[in-house]
Amino acid sequence: MISKAFKATILSSIILFASCKEEPKTEDKSMTENILLQEWTGPYQGVPAFDKMNVADVKEAVEKGMELQLQEIDAIANNTEAPTFENTIVAMESAGKTLDRVFTYYGILSSNMSSPEFREIQAELAPKLSDFRSKISQNEKLFQRIKAVYESSQNNPLEPQEQRVVDLTYKQFEMNGANLDAEKKKRYAEINKELSTLYTKFSNNVLHDEENYVTYLTKDQLGGLSDGFIKSAAKIASDKGKDGMYAITNTRSSMDPFLTYSTERNLRKQVWGNYYSRGDNGDEYDNNKIIAEILRLRKERVGLMGYDNYAEWRLQDRMAKNPENAMDLMLKVWPAATARVKEEVADMQAVADELGDNITIEPWDYRYYAEKVRKKKYDLDSDEVKQYLQLDKLTEAMFFVAGEIFNYKFTPVEEGSVPVFHEDVKVWEVTDKDSGKHIGLWYLDPYARQGKRSGAWATTYRSSTTFEGQTNVLASNNSNFVKPAPGEAVLVSWDDATTFFHEFGHALHFFAADVKYPTLQGGVRDYTEFQSQLLERWLSTDKVINQFLVHYKTGEPIPAKLVEKIKKAATFNQGFGTTEYLASALIDMKLHLADPTDINIDEFERKTLDELGMPKELPMRHRTPHFGHVFSGEGYATAYYGYMWADVLTSDASEAFSEAPDGFYDKGVSEKLVKYLFAPRNAMDPAKAYRLFRGRDAKIDALMRDRGFPVPKN
Ligand SMILES: [Zn+2]
């Protein structure tokens, strides 16, 4: 997942990475005392003062930041000179720097270090932020100036990057209701305000259920679990005041290995139930009614602008262009995926029968028996593979790939020279391997902790732009690896290693950016996962395997036979993976195409899955009541399909490498990759950028081959 867009979601899609040039010289006490408002100081063009941030400063800082940005926006809107690109568009690109800085801290306090205290402030600020966004998106004078610049540029086109900022800015305002009359604008703003509160409630409910459903095991309930897992479960339990017990927390990183290995079927059922019931427990933290309300408000809002449904409105500036194209892709892959599930279930049932387990495969059995099939069919033991996947070595492997493809060098900064928000966070300086030119800093926050959201994500604290001089990039990767007991290596699964590379791909996409204006940093949702998904492919290249996948005790490289097995098993369980994902993506789209008037979410989910022919042996990857991508904001609403859209590009681009003389390290293809697919970000239309890279549009065939599905004719 990517959260560079964190600021974008908060500051609305209107002004991505808004920032402001001059610090007003004011005597205001908050400006001198509130650390969150202050200019970043220290090395590397200034870095966030994470060591000094304080939850108590958040409210004042956000309010002050909004006030300053509105002053800047007003100054632009009320300019008496005729609107020009410089005095309108560039001025807007330059506005909001203070708030931008505040949101770097806000992002950490919300995603990495959340607390009940912060969540209260967050809930209080949500409607205020919504008001703030509306004040910008509905500023009539401002919009008229943007419109004037846009219209004049239609006759006298600007330089490509300038023109693209104008087009994107105009489109954003138009899509956010700038052309509405006063009465409709008022309702539009009201709706957004209500939505912002609902989004915050939604995510806080999920977080509540993640923190409050812990399964404690006793010593005789540890069957099948690995030593490493048991040790960390014991530590988590003792941290929670339950010495002598073992805690399975309600997060993916705890649930997934437990369901894969535990021999205790009843406990598997319980852990599974807790996880897939998040937000769906019929109590005060239940999200079903909130979701229905969100859907109604979204539909009403786009209706004000004359759209039939949210999906149609949302997809117009995406690569897919409309819901039909997105549905078309998903439904092409769906039958192959569910057919594969049938085969997988049959294989698993056979294993269960052989073992005399006397069960019928249920959803809480899928991972457990899949692992047994994996061992049997591919003789591949995930635990054996793990012994060659050390977090530190994987980090070195990523640096190696970045060196080969991007010509980057990563050097740890001197301990203490760059402030961090937790002792686990480490920082590296990124430079050009040959010239030594400074590019930025990479922050890594690897471990799970209380108050940290689950999953993995990438974000930026500062992005590269040149319109006010070259800025460096401060990018971070965040994961939820279980922190090892002191002295133990962090061993991760193949999937987690892949995700680690994925998020690093987002970071490289930030570092490689060569754009002039902040707006051009913005991601196109169904394109922005492509670069990171592509980077996953380097994990299984020979150079990485031979140098970095070494045994954590002996230092021996991973045996060629085991690698062979991993590669052979690559399409294993694709029925499960593709189906659980597509079920979520299809529900996301269908929820937003449906009439939400009297929608019952629980029933809708069940009925729609039935109609689609969802196999009963597995759940959606994210069930609706905790589908944060879609309901904790608008980042991935009707956009979850985007991972697969991007994966079509990924598979297709990956074949460009595998067909090249030097494979994944081919200089020619790498150069084109950086030049067309990483550096431009949104400064170029993605479809055009892809064509420049590949010489044609992407085809679905490579994706089907990668997943071991039959390639459809034509
Ligand atoms: Zn991602």
Short description:
This protein is α+β, with helices and mostly antiparallel strands and 714 residues long.
What does this structure look like?
There is one protein chain. This protein is α+β, with helices and mostly antiparallel strands and 714 residues long. The chain is 54% helix and 6% strand. The chain has 29 helices and 7 strands. The strands form 2 sheets. A 5-stranded mixed β-sheet has the order 3-4-5-7-6. A two-stranded antiparallel ribbon has the order 1-2. Helix 6 runs antiparallel to helix 9 and helix 27 packs antiparallel against helix 28. It is globular, with a radius of gyration of 25 Å. The two termini are 32 Å apart. The relative contact order is 0.11. Zinc ion binds next to helix 19.
Largest sheet: 5 strands, mixed
Radius of gyration, whole Å: 25 Å
What best-fitting shape do the alpha-carbon axes yield? globular
**Heterogens:** zinc ion
CA(first)-CA(last) distance: 32 Å
- Sheet/helix structural class: alpha+beta
Work out the helicity level. Answer: 40-55%
Strand order of the largest sheet: 3-4-5-7-6
Mean pLDDT: 93
- Identify low-pLDDT runs: 3-26
- Give me the number of helical elements: 29
Number of strands: 7
Q: What fraction strand?
A: 5-15%
